[in-house]
Specification:
By secondary structure, the chain is of the alpha/beta class. It is built from 15 helices and 14 strands. The longest helix is centred in the C-terminal third of the chain and has 25 residues, at 296-320. The chain binds adenosine-5'-diphosphate. Residues 210-212, 239, 283-285, 288, 330-332, 335-336 line the site of adenosine-5'-diphosphate (ADP).
């Protein structure tokens, strides 16, 4: 089935056209700076000339119309009619407590996504805009929501409750939700395929290290803990997000710097993390390059990043009473031998040993083992593919819906 996957940010739309029966990307693209004076379009059809363009695109609705015209374009297009697309899958960041699985989007689902605006103010509103715009562009096909939070629905209460009055959980649903669920799910399943053991007996720790970064403990195929929490701000240090903090720091900085709530929000989400620590960049490649030239703060930012990963890995081994494999994925996890090595160094006590040669030479874009044969824990690099998970879920729901109007 040909499925269009849409991932909408506040000023961007990422799209992938995927043939689910062959698990194959047909085309991918990105529109950035929606609403700015000029927007940037990248359209990359497989086997055809890639396009990089600037245009005026003032809304998500216009962006979806642009995407359709690129997909249909006689020169760089990839489909001959909108009806070639059989379903649309949408990444939705926060599903609250309601959604344990992907769902067909109807009025109730739209309302529930809206209700979760408070929980993910940066993500859910643009996700919903994307859904509305895509429904206008492709009104006759099923649209499916795939939630970042859904895979973490299996977290036990002792992992998702915070040490605050229980009334706040009951009234406002303040709890750990966890994010990057489709990625943690995908890479853990890739590891299971390499294994003879039954999934029930396998314990893995997945490290999704991109601009946003999170770690998950997955026991018997189910997520049992993860580093992000109520929002994607907590856990390990990220590109521009602080990760875990002593909550008292917030009152202290607000008072000392006379900050409003909005200022504090921006400080922790956009000016902290690797960028804040280094005072130089949020991009790991830039930090590694500067640290290599002797920049002390860039080196410290890398050291904090790796230390946090190590702490989470250690704590999840304790949570699960063991671990069969640690998996690195996403931009940093897939591409940086240095970060992989530093995050897991001196963990021989727990049976984790990286093979330096395998780590350095790990071929990009494919599954690679990087632990020594003697290591008690396998360490793997597994490229993630969140879009494929979204497309496959969407195709399943679209097929089921075609068979029964009651679903
Ligand atoms: P996003 O969360 O935006 O999807 P990505 O998964 O694309 O992020 O990861 C982006 C991060 O990956 C950036 O910090 C980038 O510097 C880092 N990265 C990409 N390639 C490398 C590399 N070769 N070495 C170190 N870091 C890398």
């Amino acid at each position: 089935m040909l499925v269009l996957v849409i991932n909408c940010g506040s000023s961007s739309v990422k799209y992938n056209l995927i043939e689910t029966s062959e698990k194959r990307d047909i085309c991918k693209g990105l529109i950035e700076r929606i609403g700015a004076v000029t927007s940037i379009v990248k359209h990359e059809p497989v086997g055809k000339k890639h396009v990089k363009d600037t245009r005026v695109i003032s809304s998500h609705t216009d962006a979806l119309q642009e995407i359709m015209s690129y997909l249909l374009n006689s020169e760089n297009g990839i489909i001959s009619s909108p009806s070639d697309i059989k379903a649309v899958g949408h990444r939705v960041v926060h599903g609250g407590e309601m959604f344990k699985d992907s769902v067909l989007i109807d009025e109730d689902v739209t309302e529930a996504i809206q209700q979760a605006f408070d929980l993910a103010p940066l993500h859910n509103p643009p996700n919903l805009k994307g859904i509305q715009a895509a429904k206008e562009a492709l009104p006759d096909v099923p649209h499916v929501a795939v939630f970042d939070t859904a895979f973490h629905h299996s977290l036990p209460a002792h992992a998702y409750l915070y040490g605050i009055p229980n009334r706040l959980y009951r009234r406002y649903k303040i709890r750990k939700y966890g994010f990057h669920g489709t990625s943690h799910y995908y890479v853990s399943r890739q590891y299971y395929k390499l294994n003879d053991k039954p999934v029930n007996d396998i314990k893995v720790i997945t490290c999704h290290l991109g601009n946003g970064a999170s770690i998950a403990a997955i026991d018997g195929g189910r997520s049992v803990d993860t580093s992000m929490g109520f929002t994607p701000l907590s856990g390990i240090v990220m590109g521009t997000r602080s990760g875990d903090l002593d909550p008292s720091i917030l009152f202290y900085i607000m008072e000392k710097e006379e900050l409003t709530l909005n200022n504090l929000h921006a400080l922790l989400n956009r000016h902290s993390g690797l960028l804040g620590l280094s005072g130089y960049a949020s991009d790991m490649r830039d930090l590694i390059a500067e640290a290599g030239k002797g920049d002390r703060r860039c080196q410290q930012a890398i050291d904090v990043f790796c230390y946090k990963i190590k702490q989470y890995v250690g704590s999840y081994i304790a949570s699960m009473n063991g671990c069969d494999a640690i998996i690195f994925t996403a931009g940093i996890g897939e591409n940086s031998p240095l970060i992989r090595k530093q995050s897991l160094q001196n963990m021989g006590y727990l049976g984790i040993e990286i093979d330096d040669k395998l780590n350095e030479n790990a071929e990009r874009g494919s599954i690679q083992k990087i632990s020594t044969d003697d290591s008690k824990v396998d360490v793997y690099v597994v490229p993630t593919n969140e879009e494929l998970v979204i497309a496959i879920d969407t195709a399943k729901i679209a097929e089921a819906t075609a068979q029964s109007p009651w679903l």
